[in-house]
Amino acid sequence: MGILGGDLAGYPNGRRLADDVTAIEIQAIAGATYPLVNKTYVPDAAASAVTDGVGPSPTSPFLTAFPYVGTPYEGYSHQHD
Predict the structure, then answer these.
(1) What is the 8-class DSSP label of residue 2?
(2) Burial environment of residue 2 by CB neighbours within 10 A (0 to 12, 13 to 18, 19 or more)
(3) pLDDT band, very low/low/confident/very high, at 40 (cuts 50, 70, 90)
(4) Model's pTM, two decimal places?
(5) Are the beta carbons of 73 and 58 closer than 8 angstroms?
């Protein structure tokens, strides 16, 4: 989770493939990053629970060598759950 996970080398200061930038942005808007600026602020517990509902692909994991990104879904034959 980049900066929200305590890793200052992650998003927004840099980006790795595993950083869920959309979920980080949603949580930042909800107030989860405000304590990094104002130590006395306590965000609502819901701020860290908000997410975009998307996780890593179980059928197309990251590769261990370049290009690191797995094969994408083929749009026509993919079944939505």
Answers:
(1) G
(2) buried
(3) very high
(4) 0.63
(5) no
